[in-house]
Specification:
Helix 2 packs antiparallel against helix 3. With 202 residues, this protein is an alpha+beta fold. It contains 3 helices and 11 strands; from the N terminus they run H-E-E-E-E-E-E-H-H-E-E-E-E-E.
């Protein structure tokens, strides 16, 4: 089962256990709407809406895995904040083009209402535009801020690992079952919680 999921990874020796720690750190970015009012010459407004990311800072920078006198620090595998920001920037030309078309159509509609009904039409068109203009706020919010990993080889006589956050606020002990060859530990850390899930391969 290990080979099918992770490949044929050789251990450092018969007397060691291969341990992979996967750390999901913090909270992913959330999209919010930036709305820009655009005044029209005949009165009233049209609106342009663009998605922008709000990034959530994390108290923690990673974790140390401690067994005996050995300390291994997790390293970054994926920065979700940076990936999300790049993805949004890559999509921006398309988003901008769509927004220009939407704004133009709504501006023409508001202008026509203003021409037919005067100030009341301009106000009605502006209100309708404000209510219907929304940016696409689908985002990466269900993902962590960052994904980190660490791989260690633990002597078979060691039955426990200690995972400690950086800075040290949370501690979790991981028990290694007898006969285990590989252990995968999934950690989820936010500013207020530290949860772990362990899968053992024999």
């Amino acid at each position: 089962l290990w080979k099918r999921r992770f490949g044929d990874v050789k251990s450092s020796g018969k007397d060691s256990i291969d341990v992979l720690v996967i750390l999901e750190l913090g909270l992913g970015p959330v999209k919010q709407e930036a709305r820009i009012p655009i005044p029209l010459r005949r009165g009233g407004f049209t609106f342009a809406s663009f998605p922008v990311y709000t990034f959530t800072p994390s108290l923690f920078k990673g974790a140390n895995i401690i067994f005996g006198d050995n300390v291994v620090t997790t390293s970054t595998l994926m920065n979700v904040d940076a990936t999300a920001a790049k993805d949004l920037m890559d999509m921006f030309p398309i988003l901008f083009a769509k927004q220009v078309v939407r704004s133009y159509i709504k501006a023409r509609a508001t202008k026509e209402l203003s021409r037919k009904y005067g100030a009341l039409g301009a106000v009605s068109g502006s209100v309708a535009t404000a209510l219907t203009e929304r940016a696409d706020l689908r985002s990466w919010s269900t993902l962590p801020k960052e994904i980190q990993i660490a791989r260690i080889h633990v002597p078979r006589y060691k039955r426990k690992l200690l995972i400690r956050t950086i800075p040290p606020r949370f501690n979790r002990y991981i028990t290694i079952p007898r006969g285990a060859k590989h252990v995968v530990v999934l950690c989820r850390i936010t500013d207020y919680s530290f949860n772990t899930d362990t899968k053992t391969f024999f």
